[in-house]
Amino acid sequence: MVTPSPEKLHFRQKLTGNASELLKKLKELHTELKAMDQEIVDTSSLSSVTKQLIDSSVINHKDKGVRIYVACCIADLLRLYAPDAPYTNNNLKTVFGLFIDELRHIVNPAALYFNMYYYLLESLSAVKSIILITDLKNADGLMIDLVRNIFDDIRPQQAKNVQVCMTDLVRYVVEEANQLPQEIVDIILAQFLHKQKFDNPAAYRLACELGNNCTAKLQRYVFQYFSDIVSAAGAGELSNKALADFKTVHQLVIELNKSAPGLLLNVIPQLEEELKFSDVTLRTLATKALGEMFAEKTIPLATQYDSTWRAWLQRRNDKAPQVRVVWIESLTNLIKSHKNLAKELSDGLGEKLVDPDEKKVVSKEAINALSVLYSQAHADIESGKQASIFQFGWMPSAILHAVYINDNEVFSFVDNAVFTTLFPPNGSVISRTQRLVTIFSSLDDRGRTGFLSVLRRGADARVYMAAYLQLLKSQETSSSIALDPEEYEKKLGAIIKATCDRLPDPSKSSIALHKYAQVNDAKLQQLMFDCMDSSLSLKEIKRASKEALSHIESIAPQILEVFSVLIQRISLTLVNSEVLSELIKNVGESEEHREASGDLLRSISLIFPAIFEKHLTEVTSLLRDPGFAGASNSLHTLADFAKQFPRSMPVGAKAKETLRFFLDSGTVVQAKHATIVLANVSDNVEMCRDIAASIQNRLDVTSTRLLLDLTILLQLVLYSPQAFESVASSVIAFIIKKLLMSNTAEQEIMGLKILVNRAIVLLESDSASAHDAVRPVFKLLWTIIKQGGELVEDKNTNEVLKSHLRLNAARFVVKLTRNRPVYEKMVSVSDYGGLALVIQDPVFGVRQGLAARVMKYLRSKELHIRYLAVLVLAAHEPELGWRLDIRSFLVQQSKIQANDSKLMLNELTLARVMHLLANHPDFVPKSLAGKAAPGDQVPVHSVEDLNLAVKYIEFYLDTMANSENISLIYYIVSLLKTVRFANPGEPTRNLYVASDLGQYLIQERSRSHNWTLTSYPGQVKLPGELFVPLGQDELSAEVGFSESLELVGVDCMNEAKVINSNSGDLGMQIATQSFLPLEWVRARESRAERKVKTGTGMEKKMGQAAKRRSRSPSSALEDDEGIADSDEEIASRAKRSKKSKSVGRVPEEPKRRMASRAAKAKAAAYRDAETSEEATDDDESGEDSM
């Protein structure tokens, strides 16, 4: 291969002369240099021009053409000499100064020498001779100028190749520089700021190119940049400038994460540290920045930086509300971008609905975020996508649960979410109704109640606002019904108070409404009436609402905030005539949405009766179709409406005929609801009498329609008592003499319901007849309870039916006495004791059914307080979950009752418990050692029985005793030894044993909790129906003291001596003598000693200070771990061998008789009977109708 001979430069002219001559020579030189090949050039031939070009007269020439050609020629020389430069360090600094200056002209494509400027740019880029600038000494200024000029001059409209070359120049400088000047880093990072990003997109793209292609080089500079600012911020209080810089750098990090995330490798852990800063502002900025970064759709940052992700999640519980708020604000975009994180984030978001923030800002943001998230996913949910339903379907319920917080401000947030986001007032009536049905059908029970509460509050607001506007209108000058000023002000104040009591800031709202009353603008009045007009379309209502707000802003802007809430609440944008028509259409035609539409329609009918009344004809017309599948639901809707608004029911012959059809040919449920509607139609008593008479004539226990007929009669009892009374005697005789002896479960219970509800109805209309009517009913119920549900002489009733009858009999007794003092007095002490034992029935469904009903009525204060003692008998309930529910209820009630300490309701409950305990069939004394007692010995309670009894007293103390009332409780228990039972037939001696047991346990608990027992200074009156004062010698035979009996006196008797010092010798002897067997006391003390010795290592470390800690057992009860430990201990004791018992130890719990009724439930026969609760659900859910 022939090696080409070196190529020499032929240009021999001197670079002198005027500008024109010099330019001509430079063009000739450039043409020759440009054509020369670097590989074969003879660089020695270039030395002359190389020297001449650097001459100051040439390189610093003022002519534009000369300068650019000089620059291009030098660029060619750098190419030909590469890789070595032919100039010194200072010469090169001059050269690059020329290059930088000349490249500024590239910005103007119309420039005379633009092609030469581009040639220079391309040459420096292609040959990479620009990297020589990075080797120069003290040349940072040149690099900074080069980078700054390129970022300033690059433009989106420039040719693509120009932009590429400019990018290359900056990239080469960044990559090759040993140490980048901080100013260059600042210039690059500045391009990511929001303003720069949109002012010069080309510069932004150049910065992104650098960030992604020079990641390794720029990472440490970016970290240092961020770290310097963060360190300054964390050093102390921030100045305004420092805070502004801190905000800027966080915004910069957010933008870098979008465009060049690789630069943040070391910055993100620094952000994690910021989350721990004590300064709230800095913590807030870090939380917000990370929230936006995690939300970036294309980057799985949460996976890449798990530690930072976990630290950020914890900010939802930050002590500063503003941090919690920005955390919540991040969730909408985060969940939208990363659905795989939805569950984890949603759980945290749900927690924030109830937040301790006093200003409620956190709750507001949580409600808003949930509503937005759901709205975004609603289309997928409506189309049935299971993933979206799982991730977002729960959110409307969670939002509506917030109404249970019972805070007006939070309620207004829920209002806003419901009326603007969950159910936006736009789209067709079909789509709006479909959305309403979809969301309503997805709500849980609490969510539905919350939703109806929102609607109900809106309905109430419309009533108040209508009254307010009418009152203002009545005071117009021309009005003839104007009130005198004093009466007007009084009425206005009352209406405003009722309105404002449900607004976020009642005082501020009151001022606003009084302010508007002074303005009394007629136009605004009409607009607000239009917002509440159900005859208007949604479009018209929205227009009225918008105009009303705009008008308020113009006449009284200071009241706009209050009226915005009011107008949103009163406007019929969610439920109106259009929606009701569509719901009725769904009930008639849509199989998919019939049930949900029917449920919603039924609820709406009661909240918006005026709107629903206009659609009654539509509903009744549906019922005329014999094959209408939604008949039951529609009848239910009409029945509920009829009970509330009887005068609004249709009275036409066709409507009555349609309803009568369901009495003859419908199901039991359909007949029930149809009867309610007919009974509530005005002037329809005669038809109801005819119905009752026809049923009376065909009553037969073998009839296939007996249950249906009894159901109809029950509704007549409740809603048309006059009609029922015309056949009452024969129907009652049939129930008592035939039906209850027939062993037919549902029919017998329905018969009992008729008897019970008739007694209730008569009490309201004819109290004299009610007394006569209720006595046989009570007698029948007590018989069922005492005989275990058996009424038939042959005693062949199956166990399932007996359990149903026991439960219903007990619940009917409770129902009869509910808020009816007259009937409550008819329940004797012995009958009350028999009722209490049902709480220990063998069947769990019976126990649960009675306890649930008692708790329900006690919670609403509809039942006598003595029923609290009944719940204490659940101490031996074998179902742990249910026992804990009852305990929680008792704790709650004790706190409520404690508010009125003068009544001593909590404390006197123990006296009633002691009465039940003393008369309990399992609390009976035994002969000593199981043998016949000698004549001088008195039977005593076994240790086994006493241990069982301890559970009841401890259950009471766990739930109702505390350091505040323990002395009073002790006094009451001691006082029981100064009385006897009011009923001479009851075993008073058992009471004294229970009293001693209670005193011992109270003392024991006081020591363990470091409670102080003091002498109670006041007087207590025990329940007179249970106890009477102790006579002088009337009990000596029964009590039967004997010195030969091994009994023990304890310290707790000392106070009893003081209490009863004036009651005579027998009284003193009873008060001071202990009735507890010494065996039990020693065993109890032995167990206490063992507990101390076997205390855990943790208890020993805590020392005596922890042991002395005073703690209310009520609060301890709420500690789940403590409860679990207790039940584990019970389970472990039950498993121990009987052989392990010893004399010095408290005998372990037996297969307890007191709980045996409950234990048998698990054995065999009664399992099926646990459905008894289901059988009586109708009575529970429809108390008034059953």
TrEMBL record:
SUPFAM superfamilies, sorted: ARM repeat
> Keyword Cytoplasm: yes or no?
no
Basic and acidic residues: compositionally biased ranges: 1087-1102
Composition bias (Acidic residues) maps to: 1117-1129, 1171-1186
Signal peptide interval: none
Coiled-coil residue windows: 12-39
Q: Which InterPro entries does this UniProt record tie to the protein?
A: ARM-like, ARM-type_fold, Pds5
Q: What is the protein's given name?
A: Sister chromatid cohesion protein PDS5
The protein's organism comes out as Dissophora globulifera
What taxonomic ancestry is recorded?
Eukaryota, Fungi, Fungi incertae sedis, Mucoromycota, Mortierellomycotina
